[in-house]
């Protein structure tokens, strides 16, 4: 049985999807842009600041479902420009404790709202 996860501590979905879906002990979170949920705007700065906010949004969704960042087993990072990989990766590395999850990182032509980064996760409760 699937359960819709929604929190006001992360930006609302901007299309026909949910922030996350929980199925049993698994959580599938939609990609999170670096939008501040209070203002709907990107933070000042560049990819580092947007990556920080993306992870804050991811963590809010995980928390709403009773998960934590340590439950994440797979991430996908979408970048508007692969030249931003090192800056994103610096922030990414600081978000996890212990073992890192599996990850894919890809450059895409354009992200919604012209974001610089989007982070999506799959989490599993052991």
Automatic annotation (TrEMBL):
<dbReference type="InterPro" id="IPR035959">
    <property type="entry name" value="RutC-like_sf"/>
</dbReference>
<protein>
    <submittedName>
        <fullName>RidA family protein</fullName>
    </submittedName>
</protein>
<dbReference type="InterPro" id="IPR006175">
    <property type="entry name" value="YjgF/YER057c/UK114"/>
</dbReference>
<dbReference type="Pfam" id="PF01042">
    <property type="entry name" value="Ribonuc_L-PSP"/>
</dbReference>
<comment type="similarity">
    <text>Belongs to the RutC family.</text>
</comment>
<dbReference type="InterPro" id="IPR006056">
    <property type="entry name" value="RidA"/>
</dbReference>
